[in-house]
Structure formats: C-alpha cells, structure tokens
Amino acid sequence: MPDDIAIDWSSIVYRGVESEELDYKAAINWNRLNRTGRAKFARHCMALANTKGGYIVVGVGEDSAGQPSLFTGLSKEQAKSFDPTMIGNFINKYADPEIDFTLERPVVDGKRYAIFVIRRFADIPHVCAYGFNNELQQGVFYIRTADAASRPAYRASEIHALVQRALRNQRELLGKMIRGVLYENRDIPLKSEEGHFLEDSSNGKNYFLRRRHPHKKDTPAVLVQISVYPQEYITGKYSLSEIKRFAQGALSLLSEPDFVSEKDMQEAYFSNVALRSLPDNELKMWQFFQTGMFNYLEYWPAPHKIINYHWLVRFFAEAIVFFSRLYSEMDYEEEMLTIKVRLENVEGIALDGAPATRKHTPANTATCRIPDIRMSLQRTAADLASGYVFHTAKIIKEVCERFNLPDGRHRNLHRIIRGYLEKRS
After folding, report:
1. Total Cβ atoms within 10 A of residue 83
2. Which of 67, 178, 245, 360 lies at a 20 to 30 A Cα distance from 211?
3. pTM for the whole structure
C-alpha cells in the first residue's frame, strides 16, 4: 500500500466487522500495556503480514453483543503513547524478517485513532523469532483467517499458500532484475504494453455493439465502458480456469448487485482468450481476459434524456468493490492498476436526483455538453479495498463535473456510498 495514495480512514474505522484484513482494539495506552498485551499486537501484525496485509484500528470498543461499534477514539495521552519507533522496535523484535508497517494517527469525525497499516510480506513470510508465555510461539508462521483469528498456520494448504507466495515474490524479483538488464540504457518504456490492452478493449466494444442495441430507438441510451488492467501485457498469463476462479472469488457479497451478479457468472462462457458474460435480454457484457484485463460495457437507457444520480453512485460503488476483490484475489495488492472509464452518447443528457442546495434547487439542471466523458486513474487493489468509499466518490465527482454539476451538490456523498453498500450487504 503506497504511502502517497490517500486512504479513506473513515471507511476503515467505521467498517465495523473484523476480517482477515482488519482488526479492532479498544482504546488503550501503549505505555500501560503489559508485555502480554504488547505481544498480542506482534502476533496480529505477523498474521496480517503473512496473509493479505491489512489494518489494526485502536480506539474502537465492542458493544454488549461483541461487535466493534463503540467508536470512542483515543485520548491525547493514549494517542501520544503510540510512538512508531518504540512500537516498531518491539514488534520487529519478534518478527523475522521485519514487518513493513506504518503507524498512523488520523482524526475521524473529531476523534483520533491509532491505525497500524501492515503490508503483505514482499520476500519471504515472517516467522516468530522468540516465544513469550502462551501468546507467541517460537518458529511459528502466524496467519489471519476469514473468521478474524490470528493463529499459527498448521494446515497443509496454509503452509502451501505461504510457500507459493514466497516463490511468486522471488519470480517477480527475478523478472524485475532481468527487465532492468534488458532495458538498461534504452528509451523503450516498460508500459508500452498499454496499446495492446486498449486494442483488446476496443475489439470487445465492437463485439458488444454488433450484438446489443437499445430496445427503443427513440429512447436515448448512454454507453458506459470500464476497463481495468495491470502494468504488463502478457499473453496467456492466466489460464481460462484460473480467471474463472478469480472472478467467482470476487463475486460481490451484496444482495442483487447491478454490476457483476451470480447469474452473470452462471451464464458466462469461455472464448479463446477470455471469460465472457453476455446475458440474454440485458444490454451489458463483460470480458475477463487471460492477460488480467477486465472490460465491462453496458447501455444505460436515458428516457427523457435523464439518468439518475443515485443509480450512478450505486453502480460505481459496486464496481470499485468488485475490482478491489477481483485483483486482490489475483495478488495485485501492491501493483498498480489502470482504471479507464468512458461514457458515450452523453451530450444533452441531464442528471436527476442529486442532493439540492439553496442555490441549486432543481434536481435536473446539471447537463452534459460534450459527446463523451473520459477519465482514468491508477490505484493498487489494496488502495481500492482500503479506500473504496474515497475512490468511488472521486470517480462520481469527476463524472459529474462533466455534467456541470456543482461540487457543492455532492452533500454527504461518502455517507451515501457507505450506507448503500451496508444496506445491501
């Protein structure tokens, strides 16, 4: 998780559910914590680093039902006690090799929290170097499980996953070294592969347009296309079976999603180079290529030349959540992804339903005056997962700018996004 990318701290603090990537701790003073309590933090840090990386949020207590819903934050004295150098030295005394993590103290809604930002191991997994009472066992690899437990890896499949990840890290390091030698003193950019991704994206669009058309010719329809792809174009990087497994693992936990659904997956089929979904009686198609690119196309009917603001929010919120899950499944947590969004046939289309202000009370006065909208951003899967609200809001605001919607109309946008996803989960 690069430090130069903004993290939506509120989405992490308020997520309210512990997972294999997130742990909560009640407000405490590190200086008053006994050695056993500190060792517990070391265990959690090693477990998260050996799994997918993640966060430990200090300042959230449990309610009577055991749910992390008491957002107390930390007092000034408590926050000051979380000194990055002191805590880093303590935790990495037990971890071999040392864990790559930072300790942040953000303020969310007027309350300060301490948040451990833990990165997945980049070379070999972290082993516990020293034991301590019943809290830490020497020579153990701790992992984080789906039920939010930080425990030793003891199943064959768990040990195998750690070994495979370490081998992949070594292969990637070797590949970077080889590319460094091959491209030394040459002016050819490593990202020249982008043209191949764009060509596949264009071919996919043409395939879709030949097979799907808006039902009513007299009703305007906006064509939306989202393409997501990694930095390198490698033909056949993944097998067809692998990309299907990745897609199935990324299916949204939301009920009745509008983006990629269980029904889409059931009806999807293999082409020579991709997993393709072209549902009957629907104006959408997506393809997931063996190169790692995901390409999505859909017609949005716009009766009376209007599309709904809240539907736009829901669509992009689901898309970002899906992409964060998909590319995390593919181990792209720390590799940069390019996300390209394009809306065509939007000239004269207005937005309806955006929150009103005193100066702008009519809901549908924001109208696009250009034929198509294009935008692009680059993020890692870890960034998308940790800041899905922030990144969804960024896309929404940039799209709505092209509709000439004043920035002040996005009232409570982060809350709307978070509330929608929580309501449908």
Report:
1. 12
2. 245
3. 0.57
